[in-house]
Amino acid sequence: MDRLAGASRLSPWTRAGHGLVRVAGVLAGAVAALAATVLAVVFTATVVVIALIGVVLVAFAGLAVQARRKSAGGGDGGAVIEARHVGGHSWVAYGWDSRR
After folding, report:
1. Is 93 exposed, middle or buried (CB count within 10 Å of its CB: 0-12, 13-18, 19+)?
2. What is the C-alpha to C-alpha distance for residues 34 and 23, in angstroms, rounded to an integer?
3. pLDDT of 7-31, one tens digit each?
4. How many folded domains does the chain comprise?
């Protein structure tokens, strides 16, 4: 109880110092909250970019698998032929007329 009674007898400078400490504490809390918000936005954007890169990679993998299936046969347009250069502007193609 003596401590509370003694608090009212503090000098005006001491009371002003306590007030400044409180204001500084509130400002520090506000700056910390702002910094946390900025960091949260940056990390969220990073996760979104990583997810988009992943989606693009999966899409390219799907296109590669689809192209490989088409080139392995399964249709007239997907057959691979071999061509040999025989001189000048002449080429001989093999495999274009064979049936699998």
Report:
1. exposed
2. 17
3. 567 676 677 788 888 999 999 999 9
4. 1
User: What's the CA gap between 34 and 30, in Å, rounded?
Assistant: 6
Domain that holds residue 71: 12-94
Mean residue pLDDT of the chain comes to 82
29-70 tens-digit pLDDT: 999 999 999 999 999 999 999 999 999 999 999 999 988 887
Residues 6+ apart with CB under 8 A from 72: 78
